[in-house]
Amino acid sequence: MKMLDNFKNSYNKDRETKMSIEAYLTLAKKDKEVYLSPAERILKAIGKPVEVDTAKTPRLSRIFGNRVINQYDAFKEFHGLEDIVERIVSFFKHSAQNLEESRQILYLLGPVGSAKSSLVETLKKLMETQPVYILADEDGNTSPINESPLGLITKAMGAELGIEAHYITEIPSPWAVKRLKEYEGDISRFNVVKKMPSQLEQICITKTEPGDENNQDISALVGKVDIRKLDRFGQDDADAYLYCGGLCQSNQGMLDFVEMFKAPIKMLHPLLTATQEHNFKGTESISAIPYNGVVVAHSNESEWTTFKANKNNEAFLDRVYIVEVPYCLQVDEEVKIYKKLLSGSTLSKAPIAPNTLEMLAEFCVLSRLEETETSSVVSKMRVYNGQNVKDKDSRAKSFQEYKDMATSNEGFFGISTRMAYKVLAEVFNYDGGEISADPVHLLYILERTIDKGRYPEELERQYLHFIKDYLAPSFAKKVEKDIQTAYLDSYSEYGQSIFDRYITFADHWVEDNDYRDADTGQMYDRTTINKELDKLENPAGIVNSKDFRHEVVNFALRYQAQNGGVNPKWTSYEKLKRVIEATMFSKTQDLLPVISFTGQGSSEDKKKHDGFIDRMIELGYTERQVKRVVEWQMRYSKSS
Question: Do 413 and 264 fall within a single domain?
Fold first, then answer.
């Protein structure tokens, strides 16, 4: 099969290229990329950023204060983490410049489920895209620690080749020293192999996890003697050593140290010299082993706090470059995270009713925010999402003001994205007859989850307050709007007649003319016209009727001038459309003859009911969801 051949060709492509050390040094003289540091290779893989001028987008300008921000294609799936990604990239930039970061551990600190592991996995995948050059013996066997050929040359030799001095800080490994003696100093007998780093084969990329306090020692990082070889080599022989430790396997690459601060402190000691001096000691009496890699660690805040509080760990604290990774605090970005998670599941094409993901995102973000005395937490949530809420809450602050008022703990508590995804899974599978998600089931599942979550009483009360006092009323308004929209389409002729009548009355009122109805012959003076207009405007809460009437008439006259005197559709002018909607009905109960599922009184109502369902489906609901949200809305309206 063609796809099998393609896989074979892709697998074998550029897997391994062997060359003499003379050829390598000749190449190094011309091309700096053959000896780039791990940080430089990561930067190359990340690529150049796309500069985004946030001043051009109202939402982004409110969030980023009109700054120009960088967005990287390599991290495009990390939503709402622009500043965190920039901090990570800065670490590698400084490390590539041989600054202090080149001797530090990149440490991602954040609550559970905040994308720390995903960020590290992305970094490891990026590391796999750039080739690395590894020293090999005359038979082509590569160094067991994937060491750079530059460990064999002196700084004077490097200067002659045009290689900057900071690239020649490594020492040869015990394995290389033994062969150098065997070759009597003839470096030309060495070879160099070009390989692609690989997580699967543990070439320059590996992962270390903490084990039990009683049975884990530094060998997990530095390796140990291979007892199977002691019959042929002495215990202090370089070839009797098993270079299986995380530092050995990640040289010239990346070591992913999962939950680093759960490990016994004695296990972490080799990291001090590996990062600061670029070499470490093994468990046997062999010479120091070179290390030129990136150590990335990640854990939860509680583990870091415990580790930092221990005075015995002070040597580590100054060797850690902390990047805080809090939960997402932007509703729109949180929704994108859910969509990304769902796209990798079998639910990717399952129906999702409007407002479902948005409601879950709002609940999660609300749970992660610190409340303020000056304005509601709901306003804060909307401001963090880049919305302008000044017209709805005069006490609301700007994005930066809220950030300045918040403590460093904001975003480190609340409902995790992982927990939200589990809630979403329950919502999708709640209805045995249809795998789908809608806000009605979401509200129920959220309440049930909180009830079973054994949260502290105050926190449980706060979460229920979010659901009952914000999410439910907000959804009621939105679903009522959807029902009204689908209902009104059944009465388009009625709406158009109201629109035309309003335009006629408003035009005569603006011109201060009396009006005679051509059909009835009834005369309307300016006072009577004003009363008729008020009947339409008052239900919609129009305050400045004079300006509103002038605005509507000007819009209609411009349209008529361009379209042969024909009035625009009643739905074409949003402000007047809202006025007409408010006039046609004041509450959902008025729509019962059409939207009710208990049976229609006439064939005309049945026809309109079917049309209503069709238009609700067009809005994104399934037929089962239409019935559910309509019944929920009717119950909610009666109880409120």
Answer: no
Q: How many CB atoms lie within 10 A of CB 603?
A: 8
**Residue 136 sits in a domain of what CATH number?**
3.40.50.300
Span 232-276, pLDDT tens digits: 888 889 999 999 999 999 999 999 998 888 888 888 889 989 999
Tell me which DSSP letter residue 187 carries.
G
Looking at the 3D structure of the chain, how many domains does it have? 3
Q: Which pLDDT belongs to residue 633?
A: 87
**Averaged pLDDT for residues 412-423:** 94
Residue ending a domain, among 448, 475, 502, is: 475
Q: Which domain holds residue 494?
A: 488-639
β-sheet bridge partners, residue 132: 195
Structural contact between residues 288 and 279, judged by C-beta atoms closer than 8 angstroms: yes
Upper half-sphere CA count for residue 192 (Cβ side, 13 Å): 24
Whether the pLDDT of residue 602 is over 80: the answer is no
Task: Calculate the alpha carbon distances from 278 to 183, 243, 248, 445 in Å.
Answer: 26, 16, 12, 53
Beta bridge partners, 324, equal 109
CA separation for the pair 400, 54 (Å, rounded) = 15
284 and 211 share a domain?
Answer: yes
**143 and 175 Cβ atoms separated by less than 8 Å:** yes
pLDDT in tens, 506-531: 999 998 888 888 777 788 888 888 88
Element (H, E) at 512: none
For residue 458, count other CB atoms closer than 10 A to its CB: 8
Segments in 256-375 forming alpha helices (H) = 265-276, 301-309, 314-317, 331-343, 356-368
Cβ atoms of 264 and 76 closer than 8 Å: no
pLDDT > 90? residue 381: yes
The pLDDT-based confidence of 366 (bands split at 50, 70, 90) is very high
CA distance 333 to 78: 9
Task: Map residue 356 onto helix, strand or coil.
Answer: helix
Q: What is the pLDDT of residues 151-187, one digit of tens each?
A: 998 888 888 889 988 888 778 999 999 999 999 989 9
Same domain, 422 and 536: no
Q: Phi/psi at 297 (nearest 5 deg)?
A: -125, 160
Residues 550 and 447 in one domain: no
Q: How many CB atoms lie within 10 A of CB 554?
A: 11
* Cα separation, 262 vs 266, whole angstroms: 12
> Is the confidence at residue 589, as pLDDT, over 70?
no
Give residue for tokens 């007892």. Answer: 227
**Has residue 471 been placed in a domain?**
yes
User: Quick check: is 30 in a domain?
Assistant: yes
Average pLDDT, the chain: 88
User: Does residue 118 surpass a pLDDT of 80?
Assistant: yes
Tokens of 516: 């005679």
* Bigger pLDDT: 434 vs 317: 434
